[in-house]
Amino acid sequence: MQQKPLEFDYQSTTPCLQSVVDAMEPYWNEDWGNPSNRQNRSGILASAAMSIARDTLGQSLGINSERLIFTSGATEANNLALIGHARAHANELGKKGHVITMTTEHHAVLDPIKQLEKEGFSITAVKPRSDGILCLDDFNNAFKDDTFMVSIMLANNEIGVIQPIKEVSKICKDRGVILHSDAAQGFGYLPFTIDTLGVDLMTISGHKIYGPKGVGALIRSNDISIHPLIFGGGQEQGIRAGTLPVPLIVGFGKAVEIAINEMENNIVRFRDLRNKLWFGLSSQISGLLINGSLDKRLPHNLNFTIKGVLGSRMQKLLRSKIICTSASSCSNGSPSHVLIELGRTSKEAEASLRLSIGRFTTNNDIEQAIELISEIVQQLR
Ligand SMILES: Cc1ncc(COP(=O)(O)O)c(C=O)c1O
Fold it and tell me: Do the Cβ atoms of 74 and 182 come closer than 8 Å?
C-alpha cells in the first residue's frame, strides 16, 4: 500500500480541529437562526454564540470586540482595509494620495494596491533587505508629503520573516500615517496585542489557525473611516453587509481560544522541530541557502533554495512523498515573487521549498523528510 505523503504545508492552510468542528456543529441545523433577527429564539441564540466568539477574538487581541469586522477571510479584510480606507480618505480630502507597501507582501495586499493605482493613488513598494526584512531607512525614504497609509505584513507567508512592525508603527505615528498589517500568518503563532504592535488596521484569518475556511476579520481603530465594498443590510456597523456565517464565526472563536491557550507550547515545539529539520537537511545536503532571516522568523516556517537541482524535476519527485510548496499557494505556479525580491534567480526560486510545520508534525515526520529530500537531491545531482 502506498504511504500517505508527509504533510509539510501548514502555512497554506490547516485542518479544522475536531473541537472546532464540534463547536460549530449546532449552528448548522439546530440553532440555525439569523443573528440579525433577534425577534425569535434561534436568532437570539445565533447572535449570542457570535457575541461569545467576537469577545474571544477581542480578548486575544487586547481590544474591545466592537473593533472587529467579520469578513470571508484575510483577502477580503485586506481589500476592505486598503481600498475601503483609501476611498474614504480620498473622499474626505477631495484628492488621492500615496500608499507604501513592500514588494514581498501577499497578493491579497499587492492586488488591491494595484487596484488603488488604477484608481489614481500613487504607490511605493519597498524592497526588503536580502534577509527579507524591511530596511527602516528605505522605508523612511519612501514617504511623500501625501502618504496617508502603509501596509506591511506581520509575518511573511513564504519565508516566514517577521517584520519590525513596532518600529514601523512608531514611524507612521510620528508622521500621522495609518498603518495596516496583514497578520494572517502571525496571528496565533506570535504573542502580540494590537496595542503592543501599534497598528491601526489588522487582518486575520480563520483557516491558518485550525479554524474553518471562509472567515476572517479586519480589526479597526474606531476613528478610521472605511468605505464599504459590499452594500446591503447594514451588518458589521454598515461596513460589511451580509448575513453573518454563524457556524464559521463560532469555529473561528474556538480556534482562536485554542491557539492562544496553546501558543507558548506550540512555539517551542514548532521551533524545535523546524530547527531539527533545517540542521538535518543542511548537514545531509551541500549548497542549501536559507531564504530569509533564520531568527526573525515564524517558528513553523522553513524556506530554502537547493543549488544545482532542477526545480520542476524535484517537485515531480517530491509530489507523491511530501506535501509542500515551492511558492505561495496563491501564486498560480509562477516563480515566487518573494524569492525573486530576495535576489534569487527564477531557476533558484523554482528549486526552493517552503516546509511548514503543524500541530500534527512528529519527530518521525522530520526524520523521514530529511531522508526523502536528501535522497531526491542526490538522485537529481
Ligand atoms: C499573508 C496572507 N494574507 C492573506 C491570505 C489570504 O487569506 P484568506 O485565504 O483567508 O483569504 C493568506 C493566505 O494564504 C496569507 O498567507
Answer: yes
